[in-house]
Amino acid sequence: MQIAEKLFRQNTLSDTFVAVRNLLLIILSIVVIATAVRHFNHLLASSNLTGHGGDYAIFAEFARQLADGGRIYVDYWDTKPPGLFFFLTPFVLLFGNTVFAIHLASVTLFLLFATGIFGLSLTLTWSRFAALLAAAIALLYTTYQRGPETTFAMMTFGTWAMFLAAAARGRTLWLFASGMVFALGCLTKQPLVVELPILLLVAIWRSKPGSGRAVRAALSVAGGIAAVGIAVVIWAASLGILDAMIYRVVRISAQYVFTDDGGWHFREDTQGLLETYLLRQAWPYLRPLALVAAVAIVGLALRARRQRGWLIALVWLAASLAGASIARGWRADYFTQALPSLLTLVAFGAASSGRFRQGWQVILTGVCLVAANLFIPPYANASIATARTMPEEDAVIEVVLSSTDEDDCIWTWGSLAVVNYLTGRDSCASAALDAFVMDSTAFPVVETRIEYMQEMAYAMPSVLIQAFDWGYFPELQKYTDRYRGELLLESARYHVYDVDRSSWHALETPVNFGGEVALIGYDIFDAPAEVCPGDTLQLALTWQHISRPTHEYQVFVQLLTPDEQAKIAGYDGVPVSRRPTYTWVNSGEVILGEPFELTIPETTREGTYPLVAGLYDVETTEPVSAQTSNDATRGNYAIIAQ
What we know:
By secondary structure, this protein is an alpha+beta fold. Helices cover 52% and strands 13% of the residues. The protein has helices spanning 2-45, 55-67, 83-95, 99-125, 128-142, 150-168, 172-186, 196-205, 213-239, 242-254, 270-303, 308-324, 339-351, 358-385, 391-403, 417-423, 435-438, 445-458, 474-483; strands spanning 411-413, 463-467, 484-490, 494-499, 504-513, 517-525, 536-545, 553-560, 567-573, 590-592, 596-599, 611-617, 626-627, 638-641. Helix 4 (99-125) runs parallel beside helix 6 (150-168) and helix 5 (128-142) packs antiparallel against helix 13 (339-351).
């Protein structure tokens, strides 16, 4: 009788603990679902696409370019791999270049992450309670996101790859699919590659026992990765963007991690980064989940120390934290890479909680509720406080639509991809951000400035939209001063200007002077419809550096008689003030020459006169030979106009 009463009390107490645990889980689920629904509703109703420093709009513009058949990484480029752009493109195709299309894609991505965590947790633990708990926390963390972000997308693909590998149980097609999804994750952001050993370990661990299971599992996963890699290479090669994609995604991105001498980017300022980014940003973001995971790990270490699954998840956590720490700064966004491994540890802890004492079970669930309360005020509620509209950008968009035609390109200076995306106007320059040509700590600005000026030299922008993120580099400042027109719109953040390049004329074929300097075009400012005797022409030449000049050269521009035997008028001077030609060292650089005047003599008769230009050595006065593929040269000068 006493034994029966004791068992009855234990069962009653156990039932009470289970009831309390389940009640806390229900409360947590209600809080999370309500928060997520509120966030998703706010996001889908929003017309704001300016978040994350303009990155959301940049990713959207890439999707528009792909949807329109554009050549990304050539006509428009960023240093991000194309995985997220591929994901967004179907939404742009279905809903057009709208804000709704991008936000719907974001919500889809968030739900994919939560369902991926649920599937992975259920597969590894066979506990619906554990899977629901992990999925609820995952859903809560999606409310931190306000748009499509590369690290979050990478992490989502990585989660699904782990889920497929765990659920495969050695089946080749499932493992092949796991490798394909993992490759898409690596094509979304590079740090996921550090988790490949964990993926292979999970695939082997979950395969059925048998001879050669490790080899078969590894080859199946590798086959999926290779299939996606080959498909992307074929796609990029068919569009002629393969070399550009490798250069942007690999070489330029490398400067975001390594210094010029091959050292780690942050070895000199580790303490500052630790305080500013890791402790003030990343740690508060991870703290609620880390708190839950810590309780789970302690419980697992005490009660399930021989279970391999959570030990693999612990190694996975270490790998993901290493991947998050590779790039420039320990920002909170980068540490979303650690969410799947932390959530998996929580799931293992929840699934094993039946082995814990009832008090530990209640503590674990209670900590989850406390963690949710810690997370919601600074993050989930902050996302709701984000402005739904972008009035300044809308005003800019209205001016652009009214001032340009569909085929016009626009010149944007700042993080202004939102204007390109919502107006459907391409950018005159291919760099998606002005930071690519201004931030020398993160990007090879010498190379990117050369490319930028090469593109702008031949571009005919209709308007300039200028944000106040950066100034201009010297050659672009000259370009701006020369061609920027009247102010069309002024706001607190943006200026919109008319741009007039009608004065500039590209030579049909650039003229090569001595294999060192090329003349590619010229300006005639305020050119009269008909040039008459006594008129003064305002001119400027545009040069491009080929190889470093061995001498200092002077430029001459002359108006010759129709038979080219005598000079009617002329100008001699330096090609560029305070930049002698022997200091031109950057191959491919476009250099705007100094404006000068050329007066037509009063005695000049009516007729057609060639206008020629050339270079000569300052010391010897010997002219530099001119070469071109057509008949526009006469040995040592080029005919630029008639």
